[in-house]
Amino acid sequence: MQILNFFLVLLIFTSNSVKGQFHHIPPPPKKISPIQDYAGVLSTTDIDSLNKKLISYSKITSTEILVSIVQDLYGEDPSILASKWGEKWHIGKKYKNNGIVLLLSVRDKKISIQNGYGIEPYITDLSTGQIIKKIKPQLQRGDFYQAIDFSTKEVFNILNNKFKNNNKYRKKKKNNNFFLWTFLIPFSIFLVAFLLHRKNDLEFYSLLINPFFLTNFLFRNSHQKYEEEENEDFFDDDGFGGGGSFGGGGASDNWD
């Protein structure tokens, strides 16, 4: 009988331990959009509007804000869950750690906003709590769109000019390469033909026989762009998830 009681207690303990291992964070989708509505409380129009706003903000500032809406926390701590979510999905830029996760649980009526390490100097635990306090009335009315819209605008205001995206987007760089090969190479051929007709001009002819002239002319600009690209932050067309680290504080509360 004692052995049976022991195994019963062990089973209960094990089930509680598994419950606290944050198995309720879904695997990241192939393309991570800013709004992840697992509870179905937002309309398609609302989701599109918020996604466009947050993607545009990320392109300008490099800061990634993920909004996750779930039905139930299943007993998990919203602060830890939101932070773990940001870590698992790599929200924010790798070397800036400027990701933010806003987690809403509809059934529990709880909210948590957790910040990446790079956000901590600008958005304190106190200011995060103030944002939550301001949107409680909207949440109590079930107006999730207005609550999310207002809270993200507050973040924009606090982080104004704190981050920027040092980029010319990847698509533009591809276009630059296209320009290089479709314009400069034909131009170089024309230049060679021109120089061949100027053989009597020693200065021009010396340029022609210099094996490094055309190479430098064609690839100097391209090499410079490559070096710039090494330090740039791209908004990946595949969505969020650049590799930020979390643990920069935040706040949680309920709205009942």
CATH architecture title of the largest domain: Roll
> Order of SSEs, N→C?
HEHEHEEHHHHHE
- Could you tell me the radius of gyration in angstroms? 27 Å
Counted by DSSP, the helix tally is 8
Biggest beta-sheet profile? 5 strands, mixed
Helix/strand class: alpha/beta
Euclidean distance between termini CA atoms? 45 Å
| CATH class term of the largest domain | Alpha Beta
Which segments are poorly predicted (pLDDT under 50) over 5 or more consecutive residues?
6-22, 168-174, 211-215, 222-235
The helix fraction, in percent, is 40-55%
- Beta strands, count: 5
Q: Which strand order spans the largest sheet, edge to edge or round the barrel?
A: 1-2-3-4-5
The averaged pLDDT comes out at: 76
Domain module count: 2
Shape: globular
Beta-strand residue percentage: 5-15%
